[in-house]
Amino acid sequence: MEKIAIVGVAQTTYERRKKDKTYHDLVYEVTVAALQDSGLTLADIDNVITVSNDFLDGRTISSMAVGEAAGAHNKNISTVEGDGTFGAFYGAMRVLGGFRSTLVVAHSKGSEGSSRFITNAMFDPIYQRPLGLDSLSSSALQANAYMAKFGIAEEDFAKVSVKNHGNAKNNPYAQLPMNITVDDVMRSKKIADPLKLLDCSPISDGAAAVIIGNEEIVEKSKTRPAWIKGIGHCSEEYFLGDRDLADPRALRNAAERAYAMAGISSPLEQINVAEVYDAFSYMEPLWLEGLGICKPGHGHKMIEQGITTMDGSLPVNPSGGVLSAHPILVAGLARIIEATLQLRGEAGARQVDGAGTALAHGINGPCGQSHCVWILGAEV
Amino acid sequence: MARRVAIVGTGQTDHCSHRPDVDGREMIHEAVIRALDDCELTIRDIDAIVIGNMDHFESINYVDTWSVEGSGGVMKPIMKITTGGTTGTSVAIAAYYHVASGLFDRVLAIGWEKNSESDTTAAIITCSDPIWDRFSYSGAIPSLATEAVGYMNRSGATQEDAARVAVRDRTHALNNPHAHLRKPITVQDVMDSPMLAYPIKLLDVCPRTDGACAVVFAAEGTAEKIAPKPAWIKSCAVRHSITWFGDFDFNAGLMSLQRAAKEAFDRAGIKNPVEDLDVAELYLPYSYAGLKWIEDLGFCGPGEAPEFVGEGNTDMGGKIPINPSGGVISTNCIGATALIRVAEAAIQVMGKGGKRQVPDVVNALATGFGGCFWSDVVVMSTQRPY
Amino acid sequence: MKDWLTDTEALTLKGQINLPYTWWVGDVGSRFLIALRDEKKILGNRCPSCNTVYVPPRRNCGRCFVDINEWLELSDEGVVSSYTIVRFSHELQPLEPPYAYAIIKLDGCDVGLVHVIKENLESLKNGARVKAVFKEDRTGKILDIDSFRLI
Q1: What's the rounded Cα separation, in Å, for the pair A4 and A242?
Q2: How far does Cα B231 stand from its chain's mean position?
Q3: Which is it for strands B5-12 and B231-239: parallel, antiparallel or unpaired?
Q4: Which residue in the set B26, B114, B119 is minimally distant from C59, CB to CB?
Q5: What is the pLDDT of residues C83-104, one digit of tens each?
Q6: Which of A312, A321, A335, B128 is exposed most, by the fewest CB atoms within 10 A?
Q7: Cα separation of B89 and B93, whole Å?
Q8: Which ipTM did the prediction report?
Q9: pTM score, two decimals?
């Protein structure tokens, strides 16, 4: 794969409600900021990929709201409706396919719609939607399956919330930095067993942008490039009952593709920092297993073994993760941005020292049906 | 270095007003099987899938994950691209980049829509800005009608001139077994049909269709092994920038088409479209577009389209046949429609057009239209791009 | 220049999208729902290539990508393979909480069916056996099965 890199990044702070900003405002803000970050001008941007979702925006052709705000006037443009990691994947393919640079920008405002209706709409209208399923109840089914398969306790998941909300205190963009204990999580309001309030990510508003460039653009940019070493995506079956919800085989497949491209044979040794999509506390250990960072059933031990904590050998979600800020679609792009900041040494209080190889991960569809894995490197 | 990419196979359902026998996934599956059969591949040969439709027409969120059983996406890389009416060409262009990037060798592009499952106009109205445009936007037809009035004022074109476009497309559809509307019409039929929004009458405009289309893209090195005459993608360009309907100049040409065409034609070495292109599958959702937009494409000068079309230059056998498939006026399953233009142009290049084949096709044009007067342009050829 | 921004009240506009939908169930789905409605029977079908028995029945196997033509009647009893007890209330729900969603492996079937369990939630656990309870008035919908009950 040719040498391409992330040369510019920007994100808004993530909040429960940004009542004075429209989608257009948010996208414009991060587009301008990403350009400033990279030192490039709009003329250096060959094409734009916007990332949006019609249900979230209450608008069919949701891309219509933001093309101009993303600087796409008289430029080539397309739109991915799915997590930001997939949008950035397409952006990377466009650079490999001939453009010098792609600006990828994602936005969402959870405050402007009903998450229950929006996520209920991802379920099959004939067989599942009438049951009233949504992302919370379906994820609870996955958590239950995972716990049952490996004998994991709710307290083990609670540790993830404690770690990540604690990490968020070092992240000025995060929505929910919190000092909490396992006890706080266990006593928080029950939503759908085994998920309690503090096991779940919040509803958030925000936007983020990245600029991907070829070597010529990397030369022009003023930032230290985060080289794109490996990328992969994959989906498993759709019907929840067709899947083994405790065995993320689509993630394993996506990770294998990314690792093969990046020359990663032992992820635990070779990756220095990881930002994974922890929409719920149980997802962090489950995805670590799918990523091959530990054996199946061992994900929940990684914190107590001191591996995935900030002072461990592979800190996971130094940013606070999705548990600390969950603007849908944006959250995956934020994982890529956090990984980039780590490699640049610009992650401030959440910096993992000497991070040379970083992993970013995003999910799409019910219970992580589809996954996208990114490996970024500080060295070319 | 970007790889060269060609289309090696296509498949479509037989488009019609309702498909009660299948749900969306199953309808997608039909088109996918036909595309695989067309190029004699199996789903195992496909490396990645790109799919699109317009969400609010079927109210399915995350269509790419919902459709895997029918699309062949189980344990494959999948991605959803959607940009309104231009979805089909945006999906095709995304499939092109999947392959051109070097990451995937054979990619399946899928476009589909089950327009019968909802109120199309009500759903389309939600594309407008809720604060500034929605109170006055009443669907695709009135905004297109406004464009038509602007064009008629400038060019002196008449309703009969536009009707001639609809007659052409509906006549061409008779040669296409997949087309939705397959009854011939006359200019008088169009003039007699009910007025919807002046000057657009019922027979000036596209139907609502249930249908799916699938197209297989392959990399140089593998394309030649799959198809005897692959349709090489010479160039593609897209302009989607307007956000609010009031920003569109209804008195000017279709700027997005002019700009996208200029970029695509320059890259493909198309200097004189009528001479250098052999066939065009244009996304013309209504008859007046068949006059105004061919001027934007440079087929003829401003105001000259009524004569150019009236003299038969765009009919089968003419200088530049337009829409041998019957076009959008004969079939409009929106998420698929622009991809069908790409598929039909590829069919022409590959020589698989049967009764609708234009002889000796070397270069073919496919366009997409939608959103806020946005345009996509794709040029393909029997010749490899440089 | 930007002072006016801090003094301006941020207005909001409320709206709701109301769109009607009529989804085609398709021949395969219709046969399944009609069997629920008219015969209180749960039908599945089997892939000729991998032998997976699916419920609800499918037109083609997603894994093998071949058509499925062999139909069979499934038991109305099965085993809970995962579940969650829902504690929050929302207008989309068919029931008042607390109630459970469960993935149920019906006897004779290889994949799970997602449905609801209303009663004896304190006894609900993975591995529990359950049986379908049909509604009196059935109209050809997945909720013609009212719920599953522990047996």
Answers
A1: 38
A2: 16
A3: antiparallel
A4: B26
A5: 999 999 999 999 999 999 999 9
A6: A312
A7: 6
A8: 0.97
A9: 0.97
